[in-house]
């Protein structure tokens, strides 16, 4: 795509000019489309003077951290540090059943962990004679719609947005340390970010990935989170998404996931009466995520997913499909 090639060249030139010969840039990445494309662009522009950090918060999807490491570090050559803080997050989530409190805890803990790592990276960056510059910039994968939204005065999107990006930008990153913000995707819409991702050689499956909330599986378990519940939701989600991919439906759906309702339902397994958790499947189509419709799956598809989940996910005895539109429902269950 010619326009994207041109954009790419110009974006690289701009980044180099802004960052300078020795400047270094720090960012948090999630494995999502925006932060991955932005990170790949930074790497093209300034190589290992770009430092990416991925925090494993214990509520990511099956094998997600390993996959992000393969995609960013191995495939794209991005200078990536993965921090496994899953135990800290899961321990801290104990006893919290309010959705907003879960978000707040995860956002706050994320900032603590990220800042501690940033200090280590700053020390390493300053002492590397090959680079000999300090971290002067903080990169974010902000898109054009985010820019407009934060400029707009009120409206539901403004309040909704505040809890979307985990914690937002750590204050220290822009104030105390005097880090300058760098947002290389600021002028792009989502489909342009995807085109740019392709131009940067990012694999198609990643470029087309559904969005995933920062608080992850924690807001896909109704009420209190435990490692066992996360594991069940994770297994069920993996089955659901794999079947969606196999059926060739992934790109027709805007967002899909499996959630866990920890109420116990009665079931029969073999000839025994059992109590098991309920898995809620959710899949929606939307253009702006402000309104959405439930996806119309073929019946046989839902039966196949139900069969696999009750057979393969220990502790689950029911599977339901959420047909609620937004409004009145939201896309996430919490
Ligand atoms: P709702 O549930 O509000 O979701 O209809 C709209 C979109 O926002 C995502 N979402 C979040 N993303 N942190 C995030 O990073 C959050 O706390 C959060 N809550 C919802 C949701 O996945 C959907 O894409």
What can you tell me about this protein's structure?
45% of the residues lie in helices and 19% in strands. The protein starts with a helix and ends in a 13-residue tail after the last strand. With 334 residues, it is α/β, with parallel strands linked by helices. Helix 1 crosses helix 9 (190-199) and helix 11 packs antiparallel against helix 12 (299-312). The chain is built from twelve helices and nine strands. The strands form two sheets. The chain has a five-stranded parallel sheet, with helices on both faces. Strands 6, 7, 8 and 9 form a four-stranded mixed sheet that branches. The longest helix has 29 residues, at 99-127. The protein binds xanthosine-5'-monophosphate. Xanthosine-5'-monophosphate (XMP) is lined by residues 103, 160, 163-166, 211, 213-215, 255, 289, 326, 330-332.
Core attributes:
19% strand; binds xanthosine-5'-monophosphate; ligase; GMP biosynthesis; alpha/beta; 12 helices
Strand-helix topology:
Layout: H1 2-19, E1 24-28, H2 33-46, E2 50-56, H3 64-75, E3 80-84, H4 86-93, H5 99-127, E4 135-139, H6 144-151, H7 155-162, H8 171-174, E5 180-182, H9 190-199, H10 204-207, H11 227-246, E6 255-269, E7 272-285, E8 293-294, H12 299-312, E9 316-321
Parallel strand pairs: 1-2, 1-4, 2-3, 4-5, 7-9
Antiparallel strand pairs: 6-7, 7-8
Helix pairs in contact: 1-2, 1-9, 2-9, 11-12
Bound molecules: xanthosine-5'-monophosphate.
Xanthosine-5'-monophosphate binds next to loops.
């Amino acid at each position: 795509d010619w326009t994207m090639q041109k954009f790419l060249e110009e974006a690289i030139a701009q980044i180099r000019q802004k960052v300078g010969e020795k400047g270094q840039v720090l960012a948090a990445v999630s494995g999502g489309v925006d932060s991955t494309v932005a990170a790949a662009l930074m790497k093209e522009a300034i190589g290992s003077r770009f430092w990416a950090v991925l925090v494993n918060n214990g509520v990511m999807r099956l094998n997600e951290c390993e996959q992000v490491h393969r995609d960013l570090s191995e495939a794209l050559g991005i200078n990536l540090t993965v921090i496994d803080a899953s135990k800290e997050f899961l321990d801290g989530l104990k006893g919290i059943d309010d959705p907003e409190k879960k978000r707040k805890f995860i956002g706050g803990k994320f900032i603590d962990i990220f800042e501690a790592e940033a200090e280590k990276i700053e020390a390493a960056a300053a002492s590397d004679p090959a680079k000999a510059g300090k971290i002067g910039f903080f990169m974010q994968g902000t898109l054009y719609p985010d820019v407009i939204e934060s400029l707009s005065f009120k409206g539901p999107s403004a309040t909704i947005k505040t809890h979307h990006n985990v914690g937002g930008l750590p204050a220290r990153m822009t104030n105390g340390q005097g880090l300058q913000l760098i947002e290389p995707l600021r002028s792009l819409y989502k489909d342009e970010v995807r085109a740019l991702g392709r131009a940067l050689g990012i694999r198609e499956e990643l470029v087309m990935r559904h969005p995933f909330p920062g608080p992850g599986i924690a807001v896909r378990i109704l009420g209190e989170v435990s490692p066992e519940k996360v594991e069940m939701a994770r297994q069920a989600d993996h089955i659901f998404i794999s079947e969606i991919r196999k059926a060739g439906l992934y790109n027709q759906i805007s967002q899909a996931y499996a959630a866990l309702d920890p109420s116990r339902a009665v079931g029969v397994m073999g000839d025994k009466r059992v109590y098991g958790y309920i898995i809620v499947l959710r899949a929606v189509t939307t253009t702006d995520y402000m309104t959405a419709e439930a996806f119309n799956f073929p019946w046989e598809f839902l039966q196949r997913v139900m069969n696999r989940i009750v057979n393969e996910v220990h502790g689950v005895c029911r599977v339901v499909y959420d047909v609620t539109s937004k409004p009145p429902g939201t896309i996430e269950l919490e």
